[in-house]
Structures are given as C-alpha cells and as structure tokens.
Amino acid sequence: MPRTKIKDIRKNEIIEAAIAEIGRTGSTDITVAKIADVAGVSSGLAHHYFGSKEQILISAMRRILTIFGTDVRKGLAQAKTPEQRLEAIIISCFSSQNFRPGITNAWLSFYVQAQYSKETERLLHIYYHRLQSNLKSNLKPLVGTRAEEVAVALASLIDGLYIRLSFKGGNLSPDDATEIALGYLRQSLSATSA
Fold it and tell me: What is the DSSP letter of 98?
C-alpha cells in the first residue's frame, strides 16, 4: 500500500480549509493566513505549497469539481436509459456532498472570482460545457430539437437552486432541490410526448 506523503496531506488540509472558510464567509476575500490557520499550518507553508491565494482557490475549485464529477460518473454508470442518465445527473447535482451551504457558497464565490481570474473562468467553462453536453446528449432522444432549450433551462434551474440555498436562513434541502429539478425534467418530457 503506497504511503501518503506529508506534503500531500498538508496540501489537502489547506484545500479543505479554503473550502470551509469560503463556505463560512461566503466570499473568496479571505487571507492565506486565515486559510492556513484553519488548516493548522503556517501561512509560509501554504504559500510554499501553492504560491498564491489564487492557486489555493483554484485548487479548492478543482477539488469541488472532482468530487462532483466522480459523483456524476458513478450515477451515469448505473443508468441504462437517457432518462435515467438525466436523473442521475440531477441527483448528483443535489447530493448531500455537492449541495450543502459551504459548497454552494464556494460555488457562488467561484462565479464571482471567474470575472477576475482566467483560470477560474476556464474551470467554470469546463464545468458548464460538460453539464450542458451531458444534459443535451441525453435529452436529444427524448425531446428532439428542443434538447438545447431544455438543457439550458435545466442547467439554469440547477444554478438557481444553488443560489437559493446560499441565502442565509434558506430552508431548501437537497431532496427539495432534486424534486424541483426532476419535476421540471418530467414536465419537459411530457410536453414533448403530448
């Protein structure tokens, strides 16, 4: 069994601390010193491993996207039909590990950060392209020429539900969000077959 290097453990702790701190504050306007403090390491070590706050934030975003991507792939592997694949994507979007206050706050902060960071913008573009592509390719056999329209609306609904959860005092649960998105999907599919 390969041993995990201390460097990898520390980097992981710093990334997790960044996600937690972004989630707590709802902003990427946090310091490396604060991230390092939450991680239990020195700010010098955080700078040594990542070089800058932007690189820590990009690593945090990559972590969130990796967790999301793994969750989606797992769901897609079990689905047999286009409709089941669409349901798997939606369920992954709102799984408890992907749809919780800290993660939703981090997503919103990354949307803002993408306006100033080319790398963050690139990562968000990859996420949007993959989500849109997965939705559209599975919608095409079900709704035909409306696939693009329904995919854009469904992706927008997913984003909107993330924004809704990020509001303090919001009472939207992952199950609520899943049902709202699945309801829209079913409505779109039945409108095509009618």
Answer: T
Q: What residue ranges do the domains of the chain occupy?
A: 60-193
In this predicted model, what pLDDT tens digit does every residue of 69-113 receive, in sequence order? 999 999 999 999 999 999 999 999 999 888 876 788 888 888 888
Domain 60-193 has CATH 1.10.357.10: yes
Average pLDDT over residues 16-32: 87
CA atoms 68, 70, 73, 77: torsion sign = negative
Query: Whole-model pTM?
Result: 0.86
pLDDT band at 1 (very low <50, low <70, confident <90, very high): low
Report which residue type is found at 154: L
Task: Report the alpha-carbon distance of residue 191 to residue 136 in Å, rounded.
Answer: 17
> What does each C-alpha distance from 1 to 6, 8, 12 come to in angstroms?
16, 16, 19
Rounded CA-CA distance 117/98 in Å is 23
The residue count of the chain comes to 194
Tokens in use for 168? 């303090």
Residue 53 carries which side chain, given as an amino acid letter?
K
